[in-house]
Amino acid sequence: MTTGRIVVYVFAAMLAGVTIGLLKSWPAPTRQDVAQPEVPVVVASISVKPRPSSPPSSPPPSSSSSPAPAALAAPRPGPELPPGEPVLAQGEGWWRTVAGTTAQVGRGRVRTYSVEVEQGVVPPQAQNAFGAAVDAAIADPRGWTASGDVAFRRVDVAEPDVRIRLTAPETARATCGFDLPYDTSCYVRGVVYVSAARWFRGAQSFAGDLEGYRKYLINHEIGHFLGRGHEPCPANGAPAPVMMQQTLSISNDRLADIVAGAPQGTAVPRDGRTCVPNPWPNPEVAR
After folding, report:
1. Which of 89-93, 240-244, 264-268 has the lowest mean pLDDT?
2. How distant, in Å, are the alpha carbons of 83, 129, 210, 247, 265 from that of 200?
3. Would the pLDDT of 42 be above 70?
4. pLDDT tens, residue by residue, 130-142
5. b/e sequence 263-285, b meaning 16+ C-beta within 10 Å
6. FRET pair for 209, CA 20 to 30 Å: which of 51, 63, 226, 249?
7. Structural domains of the chain in order of their starting residue, each with its CATH number
8. Is the torsion defined by CA of 103, 125, 193, 141 positive or negative?
9. Which H or E run includes 218?
10. Is the Cβ–Cβ distance between 207 and 250 less than 8 Å?
11. pLDDT tens-digit map of 220-247
């Protein structure tokens, strides 16, 4: 090794030693000198429902359990008008005879009837349908002719024994009276006033059977014309007598409550009996 190289190596070693010494003597940085990253603190919130200390006293009801009390106490059909198509409350106050006649039906004393419609209640094309429904109810073998002592014939010119009139609800109420706050039909001195509200909406007792209710309505009021009075339900599940006020109820208890303040000619017993709806005076007769 030459003298020049030895000098270079010595100088490099001296320089390295000086650098190391300077680094060791340099002051260590404080916490204020070094920025510390801020770490957000996250707090976890867990809701834990405490376990019961003891099991429930009784198991939850199953699908086969008894029905709720509300289902057991379902309301019986009442006197309120069922929902349905709107009916004009007022007519013009006068009736037009619907043209049409029939042959005699039944044997015995012949009673004539006419079919009439209060003007303004239904359009003209609906009047014949009312007449046809009246004829069908009166001519049915389960009707009043089954007794063998009465017959009927429809007339449209001669003076009838009884007039059957489709009538606006307000006219019917004014004629039948306001003792009962419900839409009803009635028989008054040779005239059957059929409430249009009932004719087009029926009664709750008939559970939507409008055709059956219409037959009942005609036969009930014709029964009054023949001198029959009201009757109660005779036995649970029996067909309601046609002279029972089925428009209001087919339950004796319910009917007794409804007419309590407005007697209808016959005392209705509170005996728990409920019938099924029936439109015929003689339902046992075969058609």
Report:
1. 264-268
2. 10, 12, 8, 13, 27
3. no
4. 999 999 999 999 9
5. eeeeebeeeebbbebbbbbeeee
6. 226
7. 95-230 (3.40.390)
8. positive
9. helix 210-225
10. no
11. 999 999 999 999 999 999 999 999 999 9
